[in-house]
C-alpha cells in the first residue's frame, strides 16, 4: 500500500460538512486534504441544463447503486434486501454531495429539540414517552448553538423573515424573504384568520445579489423551478461548491482528491493515525496519515465507515449497549392535503426550491400534547418549488389512471391544485438502527450498511394529526375539494419521501449513550470528529441542513482548539 506524507487534517467527503470544516481550518493555516469518492463539480456544469429526465429521474448527481447501496428491512425477523433503485431518499455523490441537489429550505431546529427528553418529562411526565422510544438530550442547548446558526446563515446568505414561534435570534436573516406569490398570500392570509402564525420560509435561494463575510458574491434566484435534484446554474442556491469550498481553495492549504473512496479509518491505541482509501481510477490502495481525521460524508456512509473500521462500540438493540448505529431516524412526510380549485388558476410551474410559507403552531412542543398520542410535531408549509412536467399530474382521488376521464381531469386541474404539507418529526426507537449487513457487500468486498426501520404508532398518529390540520387550512383557503392523506402505511424503500436520514453517530453528554460530544468529537478516539446529521439523536419537524451547518461550524471551532491543545474538548 502506498503511504503519503502526513497532513494536519484529512476530511472524508467534501459536501457541506467537509466544505465548512475545510474553509475554517485552512483559514487558520492548517494543511487539509479532502477525499471525495465522486467527481469534481462546478457551476458551469449546469449552464442551461434544465433536464428533468437526466437529473430528477436518472439521478445524475446521486451515488451509483450498482457499486454501493444500503440494505433495508422493517424488523429483525426478516432478511434485509438491497435498494436496487432510488426511491425513499437520494444519496448525493461528488464534490458538494447532497448540498448540490437540495432545495435550499433552511430552518433552525427548535430549542425544545435540543433538550427533548428533559423538556417532555418536565411538562408531561415520564409516561408520555412510550416504551422503546430512546429520545435523549443533545448535550447542547439552542442558546449555545445559536451563534453557529447565525454564522451558517450569513455564509449561505439565507433569505427569510423571523419565525414568531422559534428560538430567539441574535441577528436578522442576512437577506429579505423571497417573493410572495398569489398562492402563498392565500395561505398566509388564511392562516392568520385561523389565529395561526405563518411566515415566509427561510431560503438558501438568494432573494437578491449578496456578498457573504468571506467575500463570496452570488446572484439572485431566477425562480426557474429546477432546484431539488439539480445543481443551480446561477449559483443563487447556496451549496458548498459556490460558498465554502472556494474559500478553502483560495488559502492554498486545501487539496481535494476526487475519485478517492475511503474504506478505513486507521487507528492505534485509541487514536486515529489516518485513513486508507482506494483510487477508483487505478484501483491503488493509499494510506493518508493525518493528525486529525474528520468524517463528513452522508449519514449512512459515516456509520458504515466507523463500523468497517472497528472504531467505536457497535449498537446492540437487544441490550441497548453500544452507540455506533443507534437512534436512526427518518421523517414523517405523509401528513398532507391536496386542494382542487374549480375557479382559480395558479402559475405553479414557476418557483424555487425554498419558495413558500410555513407555520410552526403544531411543531415541537408549541402546542399542548396532553390529549394526543405522540410527542413533538411538524412544520406545515405551502411551497411553490416548481411543478416540473414529467413529475406532476394531479387528479382527485378516485379518478381512473387512464382513459377519457383521466385526461379530462388532468387538463382541468393542471393549474388548479395546491398542496399544504406537514413535515413531521421522527423519534428514535430501540429497534431502529444501522449495522453492517452480514450478506451483501460493495464493489470492494466491504459489508454494506443495513437499515432496520419502520413507522410506529407515534408516526401514524402524528401524520393523521398534521394531515387533518393541512386539510383544514385548504378548506379555509376555498378549495372546492380536498384530498387528505391521513393514513401512514408501513415504511417502504419506495416511493421518494425525503432525504432527511439522521442518527447513527449521535451526540450527547455521556459516552454511555452517545458516540460524540457537543463538538462532534468521538468519545472513543479524541482526534476523530464525525460531522453531519448522523449526530442527531432524533429528527425534528424540519429539513436538517441548517442544523448540520451550525454543528459543523461549532465542530470546526473544536478542531482548531484540539489542534492547539489536544485532549477531550468537554
From TrEMBL:
GO molecular function, one term: flavin adenine dinucleotide binding
Domain Glucose-methanol-choline oxidoreductase N-terminal: from-to ranges: 143-328
Nucleotide-binding in keyword set: no
UniProt key word Membrane: no
Highest taxon above the source species: Bacteria
Keywords: FAD, Flavoprotein, Oxidoreductase
InterPro entries the UniProt entry points to: FAD/NAD-bd_sf, GMC_OxRdtase_N, GMC_OxRtase_C
Glucose-methanol-choline oxidoreductase C-terminal domain ranges (all copies): 434-552
Transmembrane segments: none
Family: Belongs to the GMC oxidoreductase family.
Alphabetized PANTHER family for the sequence: LONG-CHAIN-ALCOHOL OXIDASE
Protein name: GMC family oxidoreductase
Lineage: Bacteria, Bacillati, Bacillota, Bacilli, Bacillales
